[in-house]
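@channel sequence for tomorrow's demo:
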Amino acid sequence: MKNLNVSLSRTVLIGLMVLLTSCVDKKKEENGEAENHQEQEMHDENMTDEHMNHDDKMMKEANNSMIEKSDLTVKESEIASSLIEDYLKIKSALVNDDNDSAQKAGKSFINSIANFNFSKIEESEQKEVKEILDVMKNHAQHISESDIAEQRKHFAKINADMKNLLKITGSDRMLYQQYCQMYNNNEGGAWLSENKEVKNPLFGSKMLKCGSIKQTITLK
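C-alpha cells (generated this afternoon):
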C-alpha cells in the first residue's frame, strides 16, 4: 500500500511538472508572438511615416517647382521695346548705385510712355494699357527727380505693372523675374532682368547678389 502511494505521488508530481513546463512554453510562445506582432506594428508604422514623409517632401518639391518655374509666355513683339530698354537702364543704374543715370533713364522712360503707339493695341485692351502706363509714369517721375533710396522704392513698384503690360504688348526679348526676400524688411521685392545672373537693383552694392530667378518670360 505504501508503495502504491509513493507511485501515485510520483505520477502526480510528474504530471504537475509536465503541466508547468507546458504552461511556461505556452507563455513564452504567446510572449514571442506578442513581441513579433508589436515589432510588425512598429515596422508598419515606420513604413507609413516614411511614406507620408516622402509624399510630403514630393508635394513640397512640386509646390516649389511651380512657384519658381511657372514661366510666362508672351508674344514676340517690339511694341514695348523702348519701354523695356528704359526699364532695364533704370535697373542697371540702380545696380551700380548711380543716382544720376537712374534719373536720366527715368526721364527717358517717361518720354517712351508719352510716345507709346496705341494703334498697335487691340481697342478692347487700350484702356487697361493706358492705366498701366499712367501708374508707371508716376513712378518714373519720382525716379527722375529723387535720391537713390526713393528711386529704389518706386522701381520695385513698377515690376508688376511692367509684367502686366508685357502680357498685352508682348516683348522683344526673353526676361527673367528675379526676387529678393530680404528687401523692404523681409517683405521682398522683384524686378525684371535681361540676364540670368542676379544683380540686385533694390540693394545695389550693399547686397548685389541677393535674389534668385522666380519666373522666366519667354516668347512664342
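heads up for whoever presents: Residues 2-68 form the longest helix (67 residues).
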